[in-house]
Amino acid sequence: MINNHPNTQFLTDYAAGALSIAPLISITTHLQFCDPCREAVSGLNILGGELLADCDQAELSDDLLAQTLAKLTAPMETTPETQPAVGAADAGTLCPELANQLPKYLHKFLNHHELEWRALSSTLSVAAMSVGETDYELALHRIDAGGKAPVHDHKGTELTVVLKGSFSDEDGIYHEGDFLVRQPGDVHRPSATLDQACICLSVLSAPIKLTGLKRVLNPFMRFNPS
Amino acid sequence: MSISIKSKAKMTNPSGPDWNALLVKVGSHQDKAAFGALFSHFGPLLKGFLLKGGGVEPEQAEELVQETMIKVWRKAPSYAPTQAAASTWMYTIARNTRIDWLRKHAKKNHQTDELVAENLFDENEESSPFSALIQSRNASNIKEHLNSLPQEQLQVLTLMYFQGKSGQEVANELEIPLGTVKSRVRLALQKLKLKISPEGEEHGVYA
User: Fold this and answer.
1) A148-181 per-position pLDDT tens digit
2) Which residues of chain B are within 8 Å of residue A44 when distances are taken between CB atoms?
3) N or C terminus of chain A with fewer C-beta within 10 Å?
4) Which of B32, B125, B161 is the closest to A51 by Cβ?
5) Which residues of B touch A82 (CB under 8 A)?
């Protein structure tokens, strides 16, 4: 049972095509787990279709159809559903430990470059995912079974989708598919449950800062996308 | 700026062209006549849609119409009328084409060529577990109530869908609080009888 979802405005931004790449990926990832949100998005897309169908027509140049027909030489998809996502390959060849654990949708992004896990603490690791945008950082976080992430607060907004396992913090426990939004100023200390490691997709709009006394340097600063 | 949705009732001619069936013909038989009919109907709508969004010159709009329609041709074999109406399907292709176009023209993000909007959205978004019945009920509710939405709600939806603006960007443009935008969206969706997120609006602002 998924208890945490993107809100209605967020889903509308998504359907209207207003989101940057990293937040967009986080929503699509949540949709892999969540039928109610998929149903909401499906309705929002129908709304887009109706707004299009109800739009004022603008006259086209006379020869645009002819020009377009002339360009229809590229081969059509021969069979539906089999078109490979561009850049997608068997993610298993690159990160075998994750191939069967992450939604298939994410494989094409994992495949852009080999995942490079960096330890942020004895139980927390991070792997940046480069999607070519500078406003947000997209990454996977992994907390080992029973491990705790350092206490940290947020300077910017952080979006988290639980991909595998579960974790808890002061506010609750989160399972696969849960979508969380942390606002600037939120302080929390996530820890994974004891039975298995927890893997999350996260999107950060600004580096987060550790609040523990012992750490001065913010290790999260290290994964700015190149 | 003027924001208007045609207020006159659409002439829904039950014996008029069945766009879904024409799309299927394009996919199954590479039927250029069917494609031409779809082009003549949806092309001017797409151009109107893009121009209403602003920031696009008429020639660029035609370029985008052409790009969208070429994608329609290529993807038509995967179109399933049980999963989406032609207009919904066209909308998502047009939206994705616009996203890619805007990214290509934005300087701040370095273009990762392989990463196209089509791959960022869920290709199976429409192949949902929801029956065609729910989808067509959604569509007819929207058709029935769209033209009776209060102007201020329609304005927000128009800015979002036609211009690809987020709630936050709409709030900035109209100089109203984000909370107001969110409540207008929510009220509009309620009026259109669309399902909203299970989360509602409980957690904080994100745009």
Assistant:
1) 887 777 777 889 999 999 999 888 899 999 999 9
2) 189, 194
3) N
4) B161
5) none
